[in-house]
Amino acid sequence: MEEEFLLKRNIRWIYYILAIILVQGICGFVFYNSEKTIEKSLADRKMNTLKVDPVTSCTIKVDELIIKDKIDTIKYSKRNLSNISGKKGERLFHEIVLKAAKEYEVDPALVKAIIFAESSYNPLAVSKKGAKGLMQLMPGTAAFLGVKDTFNPENNIFGGVKYFKQLVTTFNGDIKLALAAYNAGRRIVKKYNGIPPYKATKAYVAKVLKYYESYKREMEKV
Fold it and tell me: 132 FRET partner, CA 20 to 30 A, in 8, 82, 112, 196?
């Protein structure tokens, strides 16, 4: 009986030792392959780490692009955009205005004038008719322009400037008619073949032109 007991115990120990060896072998194999996978991933990352920024035409790291996207998401959240308007908003969105104005070949001083007249640089502004954001884009217009988030300052400004440029082209470079169309709609301007006889539209055009002259003088000093 004692010999049988010792035999069984020895067999259990042999199984135990074999199990340990097997586990160690599996772990070593997994670790080796994981290490190789990581090395390959790092090599691929080094090969694809550089991209060209479409705005600045500079070569930048992919990591920097990812970080920039995250920063923009945080920076343009509604919570962070609350209580922004006037001069503070103008300073904050100055670079975006310059980029959009350059892309669509519109005077940045005029873009600033439109934004100030439309929303006083409040990125979360909403009109009674439902126009939203800095350049007060209507939902239908925003969708037509491909603007996904009208409360995102960059999306809104680029969309608004693109739309205004379309109006300038429609009315053969006539800024006054383009402004009237931005306010009342291009169909109305075409219907009256000029600035429509609406008090609000006339006041809007005059106000934007006034701001435009002011911003031009201000930007010429810089």
Answer: 196
Which residues, in sequence order, are bridge partners of residue 215? none
* CA dist., res. 168 & res. 173, Å (int): 5
Among 90, 148, 145, 141, residue whose Cα is nearest residue 115: 90
Question: Where in the sequence is the domain holding 200, given as residue range(s)?
Answer: 84-221
Rounded to an integer, the average pLDDT of 175-184 is 97
Nearest-CA neighbor of 149 among 137, 164, 161? 137
Residues 111, 70 within the same domain:
no
Residue 5, domain member (yes or no):
no
Are residues 48 and 109 located together in one domain of the fold? Answer: no
28-65 pLDDT, tens per residue?
554 445 445 545 544 454 444 444 433 333 333 334 33
In this structure, is residue 32 part of a structural domain? no
**Mean local confidence (pLDDT), 93-107:** 96
Domain boundary among 26, 52, 75: 75
Q: What is the set of active-site residues?
A: 118
Of 75, 96, 129, the one marking the end of a domain is: 75
Taking CA 115 as the corner, what is the angle to CA 215 and CA 88, rounded to the nearest 5 degrees? 75
